[in-house]
Design goal:
The protein is of the alpha+beta class and about 270 residues long. The protein contains nine helices and eight strands.
């Protein structure tokens, strides 16, 4: 029965309690097989005994994992027959041929925004350095959530220097994207961003409606005007359940930072 799982997971894997309960670890492993399409609609999962052997866990652990999968509509547990995948195959991902500003406009048009906070605060040290302002200076701190079909897709935490923040109000943000309020539609210059995987703390988890410590995508983005003055430092949090990062780099820029670099912060 182990053959029902792809080769990547057919080898024996001993799950150990390392801060996450065992049934949740097994749930995550099986869910990944399903949502990635390795296990398809109608496929039968291994028997409970086979899963116990493969992952060195108890039968009650397997049952709880299967119950959680059924609660999410991913499997159907049939008495005496086993568990069957019920999730439909994901639709092919849509690729968009948009520039950076066009994509910002698209995001604004396709989502609704809720302003969680807007006030003047002293910047975190690293943010002040990125914005080239005094490390003791205040900046406008704006926190928003963008949603689509009533589901939150991005938590946006932005810092804006005082001299370019005069037009940023709660009322203005309801109808115009932040970048237009601070730079206009045609005065955006260089954009520097870095992407990391992270775990959702309670604030991020509540905003995105995901579990605490679930995997999230963290994008730190520094916007400049055309005169190369930094005008916004933003951290964008999103969940891989609803969001993906797409890059399409042409041959002219393949050897530059445009293509993205993996930098390893180890000695």
């Amino acid at each position: 029965m182990l053959a029902h799982l792809p080769s990547m997971t057919t080898r024996a894997i001993k799950l150990t309690a390392n801060g996450t309960v065992l049934h949740r670890q097994l749930f995550v492993l099986l869910k990944e097989q399903i949502v990635s399409g390795r296990l398809r609609n109608g496929d039968k999962l291994p028997t409970q005994d086979a899963l116990c052997t493969q992952f060195s866990v108890s039968r009650i652990t397997v049952r709880r994992a299967l119950t959680d999968l059924e609660a999410e509509g991913l499997v159907r547990n049939e008495q005496g027959a086993g568990a069957f995948v019920t999730a439909e195959q994901p639709a092919p991902n849509q690729l968009l041929n948009l520039g950076f500003v066009d994509d910002l406009r698209r995001q604004s048009a396709e989502t609704t925004v809720k302003v969680l906070s807007l006030d003047h605060q002293r910047c975190p040290y690293t943010v002040a350095q990125a914005l080239r302002i005094d490390t003791s200076a205040s900046a406008l701190h704006v926190v928003r959530v963008r949603s689509r079909s009533r589901l939150p897709v991005m938590l946006l935490d932005a810092w804006i220097p005082q001299e370019v923040a005069a037009s940023v109000t709660r009322e203005a943000l309801r109808s115009r994207p932040l970048y237009e309020l601070i730079a206009g539609g045609d005065n955006l210059g260089r954009v520097v961003q870095q992407v990391n995987a992270a775990l959702a703390d309670p604030v991020v988890a509540a905003a995105l409606q995901v579990e605490v410590n679930s995997a999230v995508l963290k994008v730190e983005r520094l916007l400049h005007r055309r005169d190369d003055v930094p005008i916004q430092f933003m951290t964008v949090w999103s969940t891989p359940q609803r969001t993906r990062l797409v890059m399409d780099v042409d041959a002219e820029h393949i050897d530059g930072l445009n293509a993205g670099l993996l930098l390893h912060d180890v000695a």
